[in-house]
Specification:
The complex is a heterodimer. Chain A is an alpha/beta fold. Chain A has two domains: 222 residues, Rossmann fold; 39 residues, no CATH class. Chain A has seven helices and 15 strands. In chain A, the strands form three sheets. Chain A has a nine-stranded mixed β-sheet, with helices on both faces. In chain A, α2 runs antiparallel to α5 and α3 packs across α4. The relative contact order of chain A is 0.16. By secondary structure, chain B is an alpha/beta fold. Chain B folds into two domains: 186 residues, HUPs (Rossmann fold, 3-Layer(aba) Sandwich); 123 residues, TPP-binding domain (Rossmann fold). In chain B, a hairpin with a 7-residue loop joins β8 and β9. Chain B is globular, with a radius of gyration of 25 Å. Chain B starts with a helix and ends in a 5-residue tail after the last helix. The relative contact order of chain B is 0.10. The chains are: A alpha/beta, B alpha/beta. Chains A and B meet through α3, α4, β9, β10 and β11 of A and α4, α5, β7, β9 and β10 of B. Bound molecules: flavin-adenine dinucleotide (2 copies). One flavin-adenine dinucleotide (FAD) binds next to α7, α8 and α10 of chain B.
Chain lengths: 282, 378
């Protein structure tokens, strides 16, 4: 039996965000709030592991009250329970403060609902896009950490060890470690299911558990929200497009243009640098 | 005091660190993490040393590097060749493959002992994994995925870490005032490495690694290097194609040109989304940021999400039949025309020229033999 915690964040769909050309500011109105899609892959994998090994899934989210909707979506997909951690005091958190609150939340989940074996976060979010919250949580809870997971090979329940494939820039790493573990999910991990009708009905009635700072008597107030966040956004701007001196290559036909281009390239240091001045390998 | 001040009204008051800033004078220097696989460095490591040097010079401090691995002394020497003054080296068999716990333990030891004011990592899978753990341990602020790094000079010495936000539509500068060190991960391909100078002098400081294999839960069982996988971030010549190619077949034509030049094939997202080529070829915001010496954009319109991924290339050549395509604004050389005619013509011309120079070399060689021997050859 596994107790799996899935961290989810509700994010504005940044693909839909536009810049107001007059004021150079973000237009957020009408931008849909969605569950960060990597997190849905984390949830999906939790569902698969529950089917295989048994157990339960707790979904947690730190966010403002409307994030309840995101949690309900997770219930409709099959999560057993959902917790919304919400408080004005949490606002303005950077990744250090966010991972602190989420770690405290997971600790409390463990105390109240049984020890946690696996924590999922997404690889990164669509808005903050840092990928730092997962490692932050693992570090604070002293969990083993395996990031960029594209496949869970399996869990040896006897030995309490898990094997996964991590997707790196230059290949795939097969790695095994001990539970409890924190995994960060890639979209290659699985295909997210559609919510079944009974799940949707359950979600419609479901009320997430809500925890505020009051529910964490030992919370260090200096470590939460804006105050607990070392990073400060000092300014933001719309990047200017780089301008370069473009030389248009004219010519009667394709061949003349091609010759003319190659002439230009041959006047640079590229031929010696890349051995173009030597014959090509047969 | 007041009178004195009156005498020199033109003199500006010396800049002071903001009142709310703690005294960080114990923290000095810029430290760069050198990422590698089996002793082969990732080029982002040298790029970060290149940028780190600029920051260190501005702050008048050392540029330092951190090398962790097994049999990696040569990387410490390379780091010096690429600009580091001092390199901290952990060389132990337990450190052969990257694992979060032993690597963060080693990094923490150096950071606690050396007290750098800035620590930089590549924004790679490993760099993010490690930096995220270390920043939480310390604890300190960590700015993710930066594409611009600058510092304010003494006395504030703040790292100005800037990163794209909201799908690259905006940039944001992030500061870390109240904690040290200031940490950032930085994208591969945006900064430039210094030329390698094997004669540069520097100091290598070896650290003992005091962790037993039995204390490390994670075991790397295998690493499946993706042979077919191209490493577009490291490529120096990229021939990229877009929707204008119309299908998967014409990518072969691009591959021919790339092979002739010694480069690799890149692609726009439109081509990747259409399934003509794999994602690992994709250049741009949701693909890779590249910085080759030469970039061909063929049948690519030049959407902003594509431009952010390639605009730092050395020479950009655009081929497009639409004279108003925005890609021409970003290109050094533009050719208006049908790519199906122009690309084979370029390949042909390159072939010809390489063949020709081969002949010229032969002639030159023949001549020199003639001279040395003083004889006559026909
Ligand atoms: C434009 C922008 C840039 C930013 N840059 C930085 C920066 O450089 N450094 C920094 O420290 N902060 C930064 N922040 C703040 C940061 O986004 C917040 O701290 C945020 O709450 C968590 O970070 P993230 O969104 O990057 O999450 P990531 O670390 O990318 O998220 C990884 C996973 O952690 C889990 N997770 C994250 N947040 C929550 C949550 N609230 N509830 C439940 N699960 C969660 C999810 O599973 C998610 O998939 C930035 C914010 C913005 C809007
Ligand atoms: C959140 C987000 C992230 C994105 N990330 C990326 C990214 O990482 N990388 C990326 O590339 N895009 C990205 N995009 C998509 C981007 O906005 C463009 O849609 C995409 O770059 C267009 O690809 P293209 O230039 O190949 O196609 P098109 O815009 O369709 O351009 C095709 C070009 O080919 C030319 N052409 C056609 N036939 C010929 C011919 N026979 N000879 C010569 N020229 C010809 C046409 O004139 C045209 O200019 C992203 C978009 C979003 C919203």
């Amino acid at each position: 039996m596994l107790h799996i915690v899935v961290c989810i964040k509700q994010v504005p769909d940044s693909r839909e965000i536009r810049i107001d050309p007059k004021t150079n500011t973000l237009i957020r109105t009408g931008v849909p709030a969605i569950v960060n899609f990597y997190d849905l892959h984390g949830l999906e994998e939790a569902l698969v592991l529950r089917e295989k090994y048994g157990g339960k899934i707790t979904v947690v989210c730190m966010g403002p009250p409307p994030a309840e909707k995101a949690l309900k979506q997770c219930i409709s997909l099959g999560a057993d329970q959902a917790i919304l951690v919400t408080d004005r005091g949490f606002a303005g958190a950077d990744t250090l403060a966010t991972s602190y609150v989420l770690a405290e939340t997971i600790k409390k989940v463990g105390e109240e609902f049984g020890p946690v074996d696996v924590v999922f976060t997404g690889k990164q979010t669509l808005d903050g896009d840092t990928g730092q919250v997962g490692p932050g949580i693992a570090c604070r809870l002293d969990l083993e950490q395996l990031t960029y997971v594209e496949k869970v090979v399996g869990i040896d329940m006897e030995k309490r060890r898990i094997t996964v494939h991590r997707h790196l820039e230059d290949g795939v790493e097969v790695v095994e470690t001990a539970l409890p573990v924190l995994l960060t999910a890639l979209k290659e991990l699985n295909k997210v299911r559609r919510a079944p009708m009974p799940g949707m009905l359950k979600a419609a009635r479901y009320k997430p558990i809500v925890w505020t700072t009051q529910d964490f008597p030992n919370l260090d107030r200096s470590k939460i929200g804006l105050k607990g966040s070392p990073t400060i956004v000092a300014k933001s701007w719309v990047p200017e497009q780089k301008t370069v001196n473009t030389e248009m290559i004219e010519g009667e036909d394709a061949q003349t243009k091609a010759v003319s281009l190659v002439d230009k390239l041959w006047q640079t240091d590229l031929p010696t640098k890349f051995g173009w001045d030597r014959p090509a390998q047969a | 005091m007041a009178e004195e001040a009156n005498k020199q009204p033109e003199q500006k008051p010396a800049a002071q660190p903001a009142d709310d800033m703690p005294d960080w004078s114990a923290y000095r220097g810029v430290l760069v993490y050198i990422e590698h696989r089996d002793g082969v460095a990732k080029s982002v490591s040298w790029q970060l040393l290149g940028q780190g040097k600029k920051l260190a010079d501005k702050l008048e401090v050392d540029l330092m590097a951190l090398v962790i691995g097994d049999n990696v002394k040569h990387l410490a020497e390379e780091a010096i060749a690429y600009g580091a003054n001092r390199v901290f080296l952990f060389d132990a068999k337990e450190l052969k493959s990257y694992r979060t716990r032993p690597y963060s333990r080693a990094s923490m030891k150096v950071i606690h002992e050396i007290k750098p004011e800035i620590v930089l990592f590549g924004a790679t899978a490993t760099g993010r994994d490690l930096a995220g753990a270390i920043a939480t341990h310390l604890p300190t602020g960590l700015t993710a995925d930066t594409t611009e790094l600058d510092v304010e000079p003494h006395p504030s010495r703040l790292l100005l870490a800037s990163r794209p936000a909201f799908s690259e539509k905006m940039m944001a500068t992030i500061l870390c005032k109240q904690y040290r060190p200031q940490m950032a991960t930085a994208r591969a391909g945006v900064f430039e490495a210094l030329p390698r100078d094997p004669n540069r002098q520097g100091e290598i400081v070896q650290f003992e690694f005091a962790m037993n294999e039995s204390e490390i839960a994670a075991k790397v069982l295998d690493f499946i290097q993706d042979q077919s996988k191209i490493n577009i971030e490291e490529a120096e010549i990229i021939v990229a194609g877009g929707r204008g190619l119309g299908g998967p077949e014409p990518f072969k034509m691009l591959k021919e040109l790339a092979d002739e030049l010694g480069g690799v094939v890149g692609a726009s997202r439109a081509a990747v989304d259409a399934g003509w080529i794999k994602h690992e070829h994709q250049v741009g915001q949701t693909g890779y940021t590249v910085r080759p010496k030469l970039y061909f954009a063929i049948g690519i319109s030049g959407a902003v999400q594509h431009l952010v991924g390639m605009q730092n290339s050395g020479i950009i050549v655009a081929i497009n039949r639409d004279p108003d395509a925005p890609i021409f604004k970003a290109a050094h050389y533009g050719i208006v025309g049908d790519l199906f005619q122009i690309v084979p013509a370029i390949t042909e011309e390159v072939r010809k020229r390489r063949g020709l120079s081969f002949l010229q070399e032969e002639t030159a060689a023949a001549k020199s033999t003639t001279n040395e021997e003083g004889g006559i050859r026909v």
